[in-house]
Inverse folding.
């Protein structure tokens, strides 16, 4: 049962995009592959989870934040008794969050990169000159 969802998704950067059921199914499948076969969900369970989340979202009258959708997916996996899969899903979300934070914080070039800066003992940043090093 594929639910037609007309509600938009609000990405982390604030951009609104169309809901994509395939993204949910793919995320569940990726987490599913990380657990031992005995704990894996089958294809029907994965599709049922995605369809249930899509049905909940289709009832909404406003755009939904991606984090809220991910929470719904996590809950739906656990309701399907896929606790190990849910754990991998949560860990993946956490790792991605850390990755996004490190990519958005002020990135400073390493001294060995062209245009990099090297901290001096007084705490000030000085342009790194390879020839002087």
């Amino acid at each position: 049962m594929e639910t037609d969802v007309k509600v938009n998704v609000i990405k982390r950067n604030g951009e609104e995009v169309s809901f994509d059921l395939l993204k949910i199914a793919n995320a569940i499948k990726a987490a599913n592959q990380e657990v031992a076969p005995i704990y894996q969900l089958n294809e029907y369970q994965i599709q049922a989870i995605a369809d249930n989340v899509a049905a909940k979202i289709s009832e909404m009258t406003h755009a939904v934040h991606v984090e809220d959708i991910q929470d719904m997916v996590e809950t739906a996996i656990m309701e399907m008794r896929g606790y190990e899969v849910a754990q991998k899903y949560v860990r993946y979300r956490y790792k991605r969050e850390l990755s996004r934070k490190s990519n958005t914080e002020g990135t400073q070039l390493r001294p060995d990169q062209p245009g990099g800066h090297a901290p001096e003992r007084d705490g000030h940043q000085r342009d790194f000159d390879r020839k002087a090093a």
Notes: Confidence is low (pLDDT under 50) at residues 108-133. The longest helix spans residues 83-104. The radius of gyration is 21 Å. Helices lie at 21-33, 43-58, 66-79, 83-104.
